Fold these 3 entries.
Entry 1:
Amino acid sequence: MVELRDVSFSFDGERNVLDHVSLSLGPGEHLVLLGRNGSGKSTLGKLLNGSLRPSRGSVLFDGDDVSAAPRAVLARATGYVRQDPLTQIVSDLCSDEVAFGPRNLGLSRDEVRHRVAEALETCGIAGLAQRLTSELSGGQQQLLALAGALALRPRHLVLDEAESHLDQAARSRMRAVVRGLVAAGVAVLEIAHSGEALLDATRVIVLSGGAVAWEGAPEDFLRCREALETSGLAEDPVTVALASAVSDGAPLSRAGLVESLAPYVPESAARPTRGVEVCPLRAEGVVVSYDGLPVLRGVGLDTEGLTLLLGASGSGKTTLARVLAGVLAPDAGAATLGGAPVRAGMVGLSFQRPEDQLFCETVLDDVAYGPRARGAGDDEARELARSAAARLGVGEELLGRSPFSLSGGQMRRVALAGVVAARPGAYVFDEPSAGLDAPGRAELARVVRMLVDEGAAVVVITHDAGEWLDVADDVVYIRDGVIVATASAADARRRPGLFDAAGLEAPLLVRARAAREGATHA
């Protein structure tokens, strides 16, 4: 068992990120930790695995105070999978990455090989053993990070938004793995921004302002409006449907879940009306290969509104995003905006990892960089930056801080604000909602819809399709570098078969809506 007793933590010695927090995590428990961006969730997770030491209070492991013990004491017992897998991947070869931890435990060569093979197989990525870690998609890297943690056979496991880069099928695999670990007695702390996490929880804690604001059973959480509001999940579509079902007496269980939720999912929304004529963003016959390995094979895409690009991890989505933004020249084919060849800077690109595009000393300067690069004077650039920051929910109190002092979700908002502030002719957002809390995701969807209504073409690459379908115009499905289907968002909301064709698992709300309408097949 690992415990926090009256723990506070501060990075600067002035402002507490965590304030008098106490909790325990026992064998076979699945504790889901909820809270808005910046509430202290990731900091709490790092205290549990020894990455951080408390400013005050105690960390106990099996009853012994280990607050001042070597970090390895907790690190060996507590696996940690971060929101961004690249922050914990240290090896070039996938098999070496998974072997890194067991080797450092001094295990025999045969035992290390056994654990590596077992962990890769458990995570469904045995075929990646001899691949370079740098060649993997974000989702594949996330599964690799999980395999590395499992190879240590930890007694506790901390998952910090570990599903954020995974498609629905990979999320289902990860959840099955975690359920097996819990059944075997492993204690799991899951930091989440999704209502689906509640289905596996034995207990829920809500953090607010670095303090525990609510604690109890997942069913009680769903019945408590105040707890829902504090967690940020009050308007999350899946959570709303789960709360309605539980309030009507339905059990909170994965068994029969789709049928249980079917009466409570919202009606299919009407297709949004475009406010103005949009300058089209197109890809025609795009071919890209890396070291002779084909990634995109004659891809064509045409968007004059908000288009979702959906596909499994490794299907070529991010490569297509770079071509559309003009930062990657294809081997064949072309990307155009309004009929003109796309050059770098014409299309705003938001990367999967916001850290890759943040570099200034303050948030305000970072957001203002794009307008300055396009010729705006200092006053105008700062005005545009403040406006974009406000639209993306970046508060005035954050503008003077270093972007690297922020939480993952806050960094995501700042990076998106920097793209929007530059006012390009079109946008490509690659996993823009990863790491955002539910209010942040909803606000982002509204902002992106406004960009389209103002005349910009937008492509959104996402594993959170269920949250984008109500604001999208069209959906494009890609599989193994080939476009396999194109549909209106209205059709995609109720046809799981479209997702099946792309090797994807349809979002929960899509499956529930299809079950209610009796349209379980494409």
Entry 2:
Amino acid sequence: MTTILTFVLFTATVAFLTWWITRGKGTDTADGYFLAGRSLTGVVIAGSLLLTNLSTEQLVGLNGGSFKEGLSVMAWEVVAGISLVVLALFFLPRYLKSGISTIPQFLEERYGAGVRALTTAVFIIAYMLILLPFVLFSGAKALSGMLDLETKLQLSESGTIWLVVAFIAIVGSAYAIFGGLRAVAVSDTFNGLGLLIGGVMITFFSLQYAAGDGGSIFGVFGEIKEANPDAFVSLGKEGEDVYWPTLFTGVLLLNFFYWCTNQQIIQRTFGAKNLAEGQKGVLLAAFFKILAPIILVVPGIVALHVANQNGAFNSLILNDAGVRDDSKVYGALVRTVLPPAFTGFFAAVVVGSILSTFNSVLNSSATLFSLGVYKKAIHPTATAGEVVKSGRWCSALVAVCAAIGAPLIFMGRDGIFAHFQKLNGVYFIPLLAIILVGMFNKRVDGKSAMIAAILGLGVMLWGTFFSGDFVSNTFSSGYHFMGAVFLGLVILQLVLGSFMKRSEPYVQVDAKVVDLTPWKPAPLVGGIMVVSVLILYLLLSK
């Protein structure tokens, strides 16, 4: 009863505060609905960036990954700190200068309408079939484990997953469809604070649980290292998903795309009131990403130690075949180590994190469709209200498709986070290649970009789904394959661009939408972040 009360109380409080802050704020214009009226401050941007990312895809996926492979999976968080520095210092000034609402809009400015149409379709389809299904599935697994929903609801594992997925989809859609980006960003900030507090609590209570009565929390680290010497080695070892050479190929590229060019993530930076506030928010998010392994990796390592010593806990993470299921680890850990009052609070935080990512992606999908498809191709003379309405219908359709796909795509799969990253690579790699070439080369035209993007999508689809053992035998890792494809696409586009040229070199025009005066300490703060990442890897390399 206490768990349910705290769950309802926290969830209702966030919903009320979000309504109170956003009431009367315009959502009937494109900027108001999709970009919060370009009014977001640094703290709100940082909170929204963090919670849009820090959802159950990380809580469940990364802790499950560290349960299997130790500290090496921290790369997905720590390297993100470097990527965010690049966003703040290099990409964001260019995005805000163009006054864009979407990445495909930037690509249209650089390459033409054809590239915008292609990339818009790719983003929407990928969000509907990859990102949102994974968020919904991992969230359902986490909540089922935390609250023991299978027992309480008297349903099978699959029945419980379907029910929770439907619940999340309906509630998340309400935020995104009716509140727009402002409601998304404000609710993100409240839930982000709760997630940070709750995440630290899980780490503390899991260490306390592992230490036992009279034991030392810090002594647990020594016990884990003695039992598993590789548990706290940052660079990983051969055979693990994130072995150190992959940090310089696919892992780095996936991080760069995700944090610098992914519509779902960086849309809240487009809503910054000025460049300085945007840079403050991005760099603040970078600081927390570097610290994120404390809540996203350490609990999974501790959970393995507990499972090896505690038969009762181990039984909670077994699947129907009696094999350990890494997607069950985090939910089982929360249910085991947290007092009931805290369990309800943290379950509410987890729901908030799921809703955050879910409704953020729906808002991004609506933005892409409404401004890139509906307004451009279907109804060029549409009023602002009609454009917003089309975005709401798009959000609803994407939500339904994602909810249906979530259990079908991920149910019963082992190593779900690694699989998720491989799926992301299908579209991350081709789009990153044409974006970077477009920024650094002023002459290549849209035809070269279209050829590179379509060929890249085809090669990545083949390598991910149809290549058999070719990729692993030839490249040893799917991440090295991604690096090779990326390099090949860049070279291809530059070669094509030697004769497929714009009539005039591309010159970016200042749309004068926001003040572009940078935050003066940004380069120094960014440099400190990069050095911190290198030092962290060095200290934990052995």
Entry 3:
Amino acid sequence: MQSVMIVLLGLIGMLAGWFFYSKFIAEKIFRLDPKFTTPAHAFNDGSDYVPTNKVVLWGHHFTSVAGAAPIVGPAIAVYWGWVPAVLWVVLGTIFFAGVHDMGALWASNRYQGKSIGALSESVVGKRSRTLFMIVIFLVLLMVNAVFGVVIANAFVSQPNSVLPAWSAIAVAIIIGQLIKRQFNLIPLCIAGIIVLYVSVYAGSMFPLSLPTEMLGLSDKANWIVILFVYAAIASLLPVWVLLQPRDFINGMQLVVGLILLYGAVFVALPDITAPAFNTQTAINTPSIVPLLFVTIACGAVSGFHGIVASGTSSKQLDKEPDARFVGYLGAVGEGCLALITLVAVSGVTLAVSPEEWHKIYSHLGAGSVGAFIEGGSNLIHEGWGLSTAFTSTLLAVMVVLFAGTTMDSGVRLQRYIIQEWGEIYNIKPLANGFVATLVAVACCLLLSFGAGGSSGSGGMIIWPLFGSTNQILASLTLLVISIMLLKAGRPAKFTLIPMSFVLVMAFFAGLIKLNEYYQQGNWLLVFLDAVVLLVSIFVMLEAWSVVAKFKREQQEDAA
């Protein structure tokens, strides 16, 4: 029964944020203008810049930013107790993530659809742009390399997810063609979801897998290569061909999945077995502050969202007010996924007693995606009576499809960054989309197989940096938005307060990890962590000088 109260209070809070707080921020702070000509119209090229229906764009944005992170983060962070995790997800969604995502869309929209790193030159300065884009490229490299491993692992451990995952691509291509021909969205949505769920059922009946060894590589390594070949092709296709419809269908599929999970809570009324505050943590478990705030990123606030918002989403914004629907409501969707994840990994559907729960969560990092799939599939089984074979396949496919859409967008975004570098530094080959894609994929494969050997798991080596690096990036994005507001003569406290909190938590988490890597003698992570921390300091100092100069000029004008 406790789970029902958690769900009710969480959903009421996030819906209040959508109906009231987001409207206030959109109208009074960002002042979204329906008459403003968006980059999608100004630079419409039929490929990257394409005016898009806000519901379809919401599907792309939501599934691109979600990935597996709003599942992984909460499913790990519940180790400290469900109360702090739930509070951070709900409050973070309302006051941090929604404002951050909508703000990044608005900022990019006002600067010709440039990425948040590239536009920082106009807002802060050239030096900040260069440093900013280094952090962005590092985050994208981590996400792409690691999500390739995540999907490959899922294909190997859950072969029943292979058929529906690849079937979704074929469905998306067909729907993309029909949307282009102005077919009605509602029947397309219904048909697409039906076909997708039929493929999920078929996948549970007919699991597919690669040979355990082929071409001198393991099955997991071969999946990683196949996934990057696919991502390279997908990143070069016009967004309406695959990216938009794939993400839209995945978004609708997630909505159905959320309805099943939330509905099951109200039918089954499961109790919570996880502790509200865990007092039985393992020895050497890091402090909840600041680590909770970098463990739960997506679902509360995430720098990766700013990359997507200013990378692909801003280039498809039909009208500027759509930024509220796409950005803030996308964050609410992710918050809802994070919230139900916490319920699934905290309740009796995962562990029937507190003692059993502590066995599953024996240390920080235990549980994770496996706990979500097991707890969630049991929850749907108890609520709706569906077989656990089907429900576990359904949730495994949800994780794979989310990770896949993030990887699709991630490689495209990496290509954008490389092209922007080519234009900024006048390196003409890099400005070419095909060359930039090859460079992006080559960097990911070099990390995967160069650092990880034949397993292709090299991304996992630098993945521990993601938490603090990602949140530092979120704070820097909020900083750029804040300076834009200050220059426009608008209140900036609604972005400065979240920026300050996230920066402090992420910076201290980075320092803790730096000491941890130093003690381990992991000099690669020591170097990269130190670089990220120094970059954030330099960008903050540069921004401070810009704000001080702006205030000084204002005083002189007033005098």
